[in-house]
Amino acid sequence: MREDKDIFNNFVFRLGELHIVFAMLKVLGKFIDGSGIDRLFIESDIYGETSLKQLIEEKPMKRAVEAHEARCRAYTSRFQRLFHRGRKE
After folding, report:
1. Which residues span the domain enclosing 69?
2. Can you give the pTM of this predicted structure?
3. d(Cα 21, Cα 16) in Å, to the nearest integer?
4. Phi (first) and psi of residue 58, to 5 degrees
């Protein structure tokens, strides 16, 4: 009879892309929850409170990914404007 540890020598375990996305959304949801970003989404009428709660809990995966991509694009755009404003030639 072989030990359970032998299985790790004979197989390579790999996470699927879907599970990696789920883990990423869970981390981002915990980051957003209570950080002020959640209030920003609600006050700017991008998402309602119920929708935001679902996004934080990564319920609708495609919608959650779209929300995080939109947030990243907004941050990048804002940082670029601030950067270029400070560089007067």
Report:
1. 15-84
2. 0.56
3. 9
4. 50, 35
> Tens digits of per-residue pLDDT, 27-81?
888 888 888 888 888 888 878 888 888 877 777 778 888 888 888 888 888 888 8
19 C-beta neighbours (distance < 10 Å), count: 10
Q: Which two tokens stand for residue 25?
A: 């959304």
Q: Are 77 and 71 in contact (CB under 8 A)?
A: no
Contact 42, 48 (CB under 8 A): yes
- Single-letter amino acid code for the residue at 6: D
* Cβ pair 34, 45 in contact under 8 A: no
Give domain status of residue 58, yes or no: yes
Provide the 3-class DSSP secondary structure of residue 62.
helix
Question: Is residue 1, in this structure, part of any structural domain at all?
Answer: no
The per-residue pLDDT for range 53-62, each reduced to its tens digit, is 887 777 777 8
